[in-house]
Amino acid sequence: MASYLRSWFTGIPVAPTPTPDIPTLNRVSPPASDDGGEDTETEDNSVPAFPALNSAQRAAPSNTPRILSDSALMPPPPVPSLASRTPGVSTKSSASSSLLVPTTTTKPPTKPSKKREKVALAPGHSPLDWAALKSSGVDLRGVDTLMRIPPSVLKQHRSKDDAWTAISNKVYNITPYLPFHPGGERELMRVAGRDGTHLFASTHAWVNADFMLDTCLVGFLIPEPSPDSP
Ligand code: HEM
């Protein structure tokens, strides 16, 4: 066994001692004599060298990292026209590598076309007050039943105290909502007596008119009936 281990550690193959009846090729396992034969008396207890004397580690020149000198290092990439730059002046050729603010940002921002006015609502007319009024059970429709309303009928309701508008084919009485509208009465009156779907959506598409005005529903917008129809 000892000779087997020694050959494994040192890497030097131990020449098998061929015996007449055992072919050399079959000697893959330690020889039977290792278990307690003649080798036990001459057991080798010497500690093998580590790394092995003929190992690749020992063969390597040195594993200490080599400190490269400046001349041995890869040179940095050339900086185009950096040296010839005048501070504060943009050069077209070095526009991509320049640290200057792009010229496009020096233009003043264009003014918004329309200014949205903030409207101060009267006390007691906050969105919460409107929600409370809606759920109070007070009649906000002003009509007994829901109706089919053609544009000609809608047109007749365009005064502040009797204002209707159509949004997505639903006709609402907007009179009670006028003092609660965050955009102001004047803006809301622009859709009185007509289809306000487009103006409403272009102003605040995120507002849920159906929810805001559900208790103000008076009917549904229908196409104008032709004069010939009965
Ligand atoms: C007809 C039903 C309408 C309802 C239920 C309604 C409802 C509302 C609501 C809830 C807000 C507040 C939105 C928010 O804070 O984000 C608002 C704001 C506003 N609405 Fe309306 N609106 C209506 C129609 C209109 C119309 C027809 C116009 C203008 C033509 C208009 C102009 C505005 C404006 C300018 C604001 C902004 C107010 C601000 O920024 O403080 N609204 N509206």
UniProtKB/TrEMBL annotation:
Pfam families: Cyt-b5. The keyword Glycoprotein does not apply. Residues 86-108 have a biased composition (Low complexity). Residues 54-66 have a biased composition (Polar residues). Residues 35-44 have a biased composition (Acidic residues). Signal peptide: none annotated. InterPro entries: Cyt_B5-like_heme/steroid-bd, Cyt_B5-like_heme/steroid_sf, Cyt_B5_heme-BS, Cytochrome_b5/Flavoprotein_Rdt. GO terms for molecular function: cytochrome-b5 reductase activity, acting on NAD(P)H; heme binding; metal ion binding. This is Cytoplasm protein. The lineage of its organism: Eukaryota, Fungi, Dikarya, Basidiomycota, Agaricomycotina.
